[in-house]
Amino acid sequence: MDYNNLLHILSKLIGSLNFISILFIILGYLFIRPYISYFKSLRDPQYTRAPGPLPLPFIGYLSILFGDIAENNFKLSAKYGDVCEIEMFGYRYVLISNPKLLGDLFSPSVNSPFLRRMPLMPGFKELGMDKEGLLLNLDIPKWRHNRKFFQQSLSPPSFLELSTKYTRECCEELIEHWNNIIDNKHNNKHGNKINIRLDKWYRAFTSDMMGLVAAGSKEDSLKVLYNDKYNKTVIDNTKEKNLSEGETYRRLREDYINALNFFVFIPKFLWNLPFIQGQCKFYRGVLDSLTEFEIKFIKERKQVINSESSNNDNNKNNNKNNSKVRPDFLTMLLTMNKDSDPTPDDIKQNLREMFSAGTGTTTTTLCSIAYLLSKHPEIEKRMVEEILSVIGPNNPIDSSNLSKLVYTEAVLNESMRLYPVVPVTYRFSPEISTQIDKYRFPPDTLFAINLGHIHRDARYFKDPEKFNPDRFLGNWREDIPNYAFSPFGHGMRSCPGKNFSMTEIKVILATIYRKFTFKLVNPNEPLHLQFAAVNDITKMEVYIEKRELPQN
Ligand code: HEM
Q: Membrane-spanning residues where (predicted)?
């Protein structure tokens, strides 16, 4: 049969197809597509395929639709080993659970081919994150530029001092509210025990704290929570009508996290379905309002900075200490970046990521610490003894004390080992093929690093399920293999907020735990974590008690 005949037969066949048959052919193709690519990859002589389950039609792997991705990753590694493979997000998704195999992916080299976290997905564009900020930025020159200024903005001693001061202020406010709740007998429904939602309090706390640290805006989340639940005498009819700017921003950011999860995890072809369309429209509205709010806010700050610097130029006797501009993260971003004179648009995503990456992560970490300490009172006692001996029962904490809180830091590290906020992180290279162990993967493979699984692997941690802060004392950095403990990731895309977070959390633990102790209301329940982009605490009920301090 010649070529023309073949074309003729094909065109006749296509002409005879009706809409239903075409639909069936398309669906049939989509149904078998994962198998075609699966069997093709098995026969490709250039590359290898790691063990893993057969893909499912349409979705590739069930955990996209059901269950917790982090938990499913955990089970996959337990079943298939240190390197295993599934289909996810339309990509070959290789899960790695052995720190010895992470050298290339976690490379600290500026020329690493793994500077991207994930491939471009439609949701990233919708969120404006594919070319902005850090987290999902795929534009490498832009990401480098942002990363440099993000990191520099977090490091000046004046910034760290100010953020410690703001954290202490928020702790003092929290302590005052909790004292009021405990002292107020009307709230006491459980005999001598006061039952609180610790997750809600810490969420409000980190929101106020990050509001101050990032943009100098006090959000009043703690006050709102206290007044709503405990201070019934305050009747605020204007509450819904006249939200403070801080509270409006806080609510927008809360919705933003949901928008982020929506656009990242719901495939684009579903956005226009009737029952999802409304949600999509709502989240687009949230993104627009948030952008409008941030641009206005950044413009105002820029004006203040510019007018102060032109006054300073005119006034040679100027005293810098009289500056009205707070040295918070936003000011740092604007002033450190002066040579390139950043526009509000350049900066807004960095500011947004400071909030979104800083509040939920800290809340979950604080709750996991409270959970573990309430189950291990002897460890809590030892931590509080250290806090009291280094700082005393009432003195304010300053940065010079923090390095002496060695056991407190070990408690923090051990909690992050057992409950890492980011149990899986990703690396991706569209450019090169990658050799991992005995497997060779093509470009465009998505590598998922199974941090949560590695943290509980008996090969690297003796009695891995045991809460034992002692493993983080002494020369632990030499004892634990490279990359086996990675609560902040590693390499060029590791967490730029690491030092800042460690400092903040230690300040919070030292300030709060010398005043209060928490007991779980349901001690037999597991920690309620839900994984979306990170592990988020969904509920934590505790009895709160004032700590009885030893009399001097
Ligand atoms: C307990 C607190 C925190 C934990 C456990 C945490 C953990 C992490 C982890 C595991 C990553 C991914 C690292 C990798 O892939 O190698 C990350 C990335 C990131 N974190 Fe954090 N983080 C915390 C707090 C913060 C704070 C306070 C900020 C902001 C000041 C922040 C900003 C970021 C940003 C911007 C990235 C993306 C970096 C990039 O892609 O270049 N994080 N974080």
A: 6-32
